[in-house]
Predict the 3D structure of the following.
Amino acid sequence: MESCLQEDYYKRLKSDFIIVNIVAGAAVLLISAVIMLQRYGIMVGIPCGMHEILHIYCPGCGGTRAFFALMHGDVFQSIYYNPAVFLGALLVLYYESTVFLTLVKKNGKIYFYRKTGLVYAFLFIFLTYAIVRDYLLVGMGIDMIGDFL
Ligand SMILES: [Zn+2]
């Protein structure tokens, strides 16, 4: 009975894992393609509304720069531009490695736990950073990224 339940668990975890990776993989490929096309001037960049009209940073601003900094191995610069990229990469790494380990080992141990606290922590840091960055810009005249001042 118990092994039957376990097989069901593995099957479900595996199908979820495949679906998540297909959808997320396609999204990452699409976003990467757009970023590369913009980077090399083949495609016009999509302007950020908050950036262009309100002259403040939106929570996503600096994301592309953070992505490239991370690709060059500069973790601190990446976090400085936008911590969401590095923290998001950590969350993805956690999910991928623990689900993979659970499915490959199949020893009855579960290495992956749905830690919603991690997601909330991510959102908290992401939004707090955006608020602090705009407060520094508007309230104190300190432009962290240097697009406006
Ligand atoms: Zn923006």
Q: What stands out?
A: The chain has one domain: 2-140.
